[in-house]
């Protein structure tokens, strides 16, 4: 079983003295960085749509990419989902479990394992990468092939997608479904009998769910209702969709 989670924009460099690994697509990440190294400050400002100061910082970041210190991915991401995954509270044995099951989708690295060493970055997946075209299109075949290869090594051959729609687009889902069970996780929030958008709540729930799934993996989609007990759970086995519902 693999659990997919989106990255976060906020990242932090942290020390980790345990075992680490090299990203599957480190060479591709270096190639993307090399393409951005051809941009001057003005080009970066236009690409990122940011101020002069931030563009200058981005320029320095890409020019020094090869020499920057790296951080374990599990501890690097600091957004809402990862705050609720709460890696700092995991024991060594639990970190190994999370490392086995969790995969983080990335605009720069494609697919990241929790213990992969990565450089902090900020990259918009939906834009065209310099010299490479659409970021989503660039990664789709790489990521899809890799997930299909990796899931073959798991006893339970299914993938639970807790990532956002943006990062889900990196994957050829129809191709995945031909080989393994794809479980799509959705969240609904209801107030005054109406569906309301609660993105921060959903991000937090994704992180909590990813943690629980990794520590206590399921063997079938029918077991998904054992998680997030403060939510209702609707399971569509035929279409592989699990929807967690919360009344506000």
Task: Give a brief rundown of this model.
The protein is 38% helix and 20% strand.
What does this structure look like?
The protein is α/β, with parallel strands linked by helices. The chain has one domain. Helices cover 38% and strands 20% of the residues. The protein has helices at 26-36, 41-48, 52-63, 73-76, 80-85, 92-101, 135-151, 165-168, 173-177, 199-215, and strands at 2-5, 71-72, 102-106, 110-112, 117-118, 128-129, 133-134, 158-161, 181-191, 194-196, 232-236, 241-247. Strands 1, 3, 4, 8, 9, 10, 11 and 12 form an eight-stranded mixed beta sheet that branches. Strands 2-5 form a two-stranded antiparallel sheet. Strands 6-7 form a two-stranded antiparallel ribbon. α2 (41-48) packs across α3 and α6 crosses α10 (199-215). The radius of gyration is 18 Å and the shape is globular. It starts with a strand and ends with a strand. The model has no long low-confidence stretch (mean pLDDT 95).
